[in-house]
Amino acid sequence: MKARAFAYARPRTLDDAHAAFAAAEGDASYISGGQSLVPALAMRLQAPQVLVDLAGIEALRGVRLEGDWLRIGALTRHADALTDPLIRAHAPLLSAAAPFVAHPAIRNRGTLGGSVALADPASEFPAMMLAMGAEMEIFGPEGLRRVPADDYFQDLYQTAIVPGEILVALHVPVVGPRRCWAFDELARRRGDYAMVGGGILAERDGGRIGALRIAFFSVGPTPMRARAAEAVLTGRVPDADAIADAQRALDADIDPLDDEEVPAPMRRHLARVLLGRLVRKLEIA
Ligand SMILES: Cc1cc2nc3c(=O)[nH]c(=O)nc-3n(C[C@H](O)[C@H](O)[C@H](O)COP(=O)(O)OP(=O)(O)OC[C@H]3O[C@@H](n4cnc5c(N)ncnc54)[C@H](O)[C@@H]3O)c2cc1C
Question: Which residues are in the FAD-binding PCMH-type domain (predicted)?
Fold first, then answer.
């Protein structure tokens, strides 16, 4: 199939992009890397009258430190998460996740902002935003606002972005010297969407696990924070007992969909296995 014919706009500013969207009276889509949208257009799962291309907007570009935060422009490519020195140093969970996202051709076009705006519950980067305690900067009719990851992911493909708003940047708290992290996923083949995946960002506290955030993907309608498992692990030496307790607690944190390929009980089992691997990977000592 081919996409339905559409008009194309390439604005240079956020205001112009918003105006182009508004002029289509809701029958428009923003496009960034196109790696999710173009297949959806080709299959006519979406058929907007107007595509508003965000690629010409300078405000969506660049990676830079702003005090204790790393600002990652929404147009930053998946591939940049592997190579950008600031991302590697200060948002290492993104760098750890990037090789697992699709394939090089898609990573060269797909943007971090597009992935986080789409908020596929099986995607790596949105869940890592949750694990890192990131904040999303959104442009809307009232101007710019920042929404913490804990409030941003609301339901299946539903975020704090309302139609017509633009995700401008991802703000990640910089990683300090006592932080450690782990990322992993279980997929049938490398590059496939994971059956289960997750990441942990934790403080080292004299051989024990200090404050930590755990986020999973492919285990519910949104990226899921594992708060019960976090509570169990806080203050513990990451030994076999702590891991077993956390694995038991994890059941309350996740809400896997039941599908034929990966039934919910299997996803729960895989999530427990993955949590054990993630905790063992943490360099707490
Ligand atoms: C074969 C294949 C395999 C893939 N495998 C994986 C995988 O393993 N893991 C994974 O996470 N992803 C995977 N993807 C998806 C890929 O990562 C997408 O690139 C990404 O999800 C979307 O980023 P994009 O820049 O291409 O967004 P686009 O496709 O341009 O847009 C996606 C959606 O977000 C909206 N949007 C985009 N940018 C903004 C913005 N700044 N503000 C507001 N709304 C915006 C668009 O309107 C659209 O609805 C795969 C894709 C393909 C084709």
Answer: 1-177
